[in-house]
Amino acid sequence: MPLVDLIGIHKSFGTNPVLRGIDLSVHEGQVVALIGRSGSGKSTLLRTINGLEHIDDGVISVDGEKIDARDTDLRALRLKVGMVFQQFNLFPHLTAAENVMLAPKVVKKAPQAELRALAVEMLEKVGLGDRLDHYPDQLSGGQQQRVAIARSLAMRPRVLLCDEVTSALDPELVAEVLAVVRKLADDGMTLIMVTHEMRFAREVCDQLVFMHQGRIHESGPPEQVFSAPQTEELRQFLGGIG
Amino acid sequence: MAYQFDFSSLSGYGDLLAKGAGLTVSLTVVGGLAGVAIGIAGAWARSRPVPVLAPVVAAYVEVIRNTPFLVQLFFLFFGLPALGIKLGEFQAAALAMVVNLGAYSTEIIRAGVQSIPRGQIEAAMSLAMTPLQIFRHVVLIPALKKIWPALSSQVVIVMLGSSVCSQIAAEELTFAANFIQSRNFRAFEVYFVVTALYLALSILLRWLLSRLGQALFERRRHG
Fold first, then answer.
1. Which UniProt keywords apply (chain B) (predicted)?
2. What is the predicted ipTM?
3. Which residue among A78, A102, A135 sits closest to B137, beta carbon to beta carbon?
């Protein structure tokens, strides 16, 4: 049984359909990249998986937690789904450790004694064990994004969504963030990511999903998608970014 | 025909002035704390898509911001007894200040709340935090930090506005001044001293609020 199962997902912004019937299954430990042109619906799709975008139709199921278009309380789903954003979105008034500890403290009511140890564990995992008491604006973009990853991991999600996590970074800071994502993948974390880092996607992902005009146009293992694209749209997309 | 200044004419009224200043401070503490608390609650209500609450808060803010403080005070003190609600001078004065500051601080704090980037709220949502947890832990402190100077000024304005409460015989500083000059006819000396007292209170209040802001928003040092 898949860990993440999307069935018939539809979503419109006003009269503009963005997702037109998406079916996607992701198994535990799989790393899936959503690729496609801007406006193809890949970020919106990612955001539906933890309820940041409400769906108009379809069913989302993550580790047995099912929601459909009628559900409004999405916190049970969000407990299973972590998310890392393009713009990091750290809480600026809290230190790196406090950013990591906040949700375990207020949502899971973790005991104070465990919280600091949790922050240390998570920040060491992303290579920032020496930046516990730094505030976000005292960290580089790459470091901020790694804190954001640690913050998500502290809630022990079953799947982590990554929305263009390196797009806002200076080129020399991209590698350190990708190294952390790669390590998560190696450790068996289930990952669904929107990315423009094609080389990274090719090396790390088990499955590439090419989206076009709100539909999954083509998908498969990276080798197949890159070396033998089946459709003209994918060929053009790959050629355009080549 | 030169006016002979005679500040000694105030001797014997020191206790009255001190008592008046004490009441002004009491009114300001009550009005400031409860008014800002209402402002925080009001800003929270207006930031939520709740069908009834948000318009009710909006109406409260508009009514208070578009009517004179003196009329609000008279309404509470002279108007409400018609409905069987009798308030003492201090109660009416304190309530008027709470209601007044509550409306202004709702608007001020709301501006701070709106300045918080949407992404930070989405990040908190994605961590399964409830709306109230998000407001309290993610939104409120950065929002207050942004508008702290404006909020501090409003608290000072309300303290100075408390002088109006002399009109319902709340025995605050201005009431004391009016009383003294009606006895010794030394208006210049009395109001000169009271002006200095208000000035001192304002400077003290601004300093306290600035220290409070530092304590609330200050970062711990690290190596």
1. Cell membrane, Membrane, Transmembrane, Transmembrane helix, Transport
2. 0.94
3. A102
